């Protein structure tokens, strides 16, 4: 194994360098900047919203997996819709607070999850002390900036909307949290040196995580700064992972020539275009019924009940994605995933060209 998850080119070009470049860019900007239209279109809409729909290729549009969990996949969005509608009807502020903290947990789990995939690719144990230290070090690299954010509320940025995070966290929590973070990082570095294992992708993934979460939250203060780094570091790796796994799945099965073509080379424009279409439709509906900030004017103001139903329905893709993402990457539920990840890495270099 050469220490990369997909390949050196893909890991650097999609998983790591875009996030690092986005941090370098925001460090050149003054604080307090709102996100311009290009960040909304290229970042929020084309990456953040579109990547949510990419889960379709790992469950609903995979005939074998969907047939295995049909009842679960059918019931889940229905239950999510009822829950979102009920909570929002009870309290809009509570709804957005729960959405914000659920999103934070989801983003944190992705950073930890990619580290785990790197370990799986190299055949490393998940029960050893170095695995536990790595997991908690990665967790604190995300959690410490979030704690810092809470201590310094309000800021010039928010997760979904102003006031969605709970204010009043005492500043005294930062010292023990900082010591814990530093201690875990030192222990992780010691384990890495002792292992003498070549794993550049895994190491750079941790470094980019630190840069994104500290850079977008602590070192800068602006909606542009946070949004750009946040969506690039989260959405692009997810696209790469879903498309690579989809390609590998159909290629190894030796069936579905059209499906293979759709996940390699120029053929990837077809499934990607489908995701972008869904993202445009979803975000357009959000703007028409809820936000009134981009594609619609305030001349159309829906009634409270229409807006209530709209928020409940439009939150379904995102919340469903949060739940599915904790399920579709687990080997005990999807045994084919371990087979795909444990294939010789030399062949994986050709998975995305």
Describe this structure in words.
The protein has helices spanning 8-26, 37-53, 63-68, 70-90, 92-121, 129-151, 174-195, 200-219, 223-253, 257-262, 269-291, 304-314, 316-325, 335-341, 345-348. The protein is built from 15 helices and no strands. The chain starts with 7 loop residues before the first helix and ends in a 5-residue tail after the last helix. α2 crosses α11 (269-291) and α6 runs parallel beside α8 (200-219). The model is unreliable at 344-353 (pLDDT under 50). The protein is mainly α.
Tell me the layout of helices and strands.
Blueprint: H1 8-26, H2 37-53, H3 63-68, H4 70-90, H5 92-121, H6 129-151, H7 174-195, H8 200-219, H9 223-253, H10 257-262, H11 269-291, H12 304-314, H13 316-325, H14 335-341, H15 345-348
What is Rg? 21 Å
Distance between the termini: 19 Å
Unreliable stretches covering 5 or more consecutive residues: 344-353
Helical residue percent?
A: over 70%
Q: Strand count, sense and closure of the main sheet?
A: none
- The secondary-structure class comes to mainly alpha
Give the beta-strand count. 0
- Annotation field: number of helices: 15
Rough outline? globular
Brief overview, please?
The protein has 353 residues and is mainly α.
Tags for this model:
mainly alpha, 15 helices, 0% strand
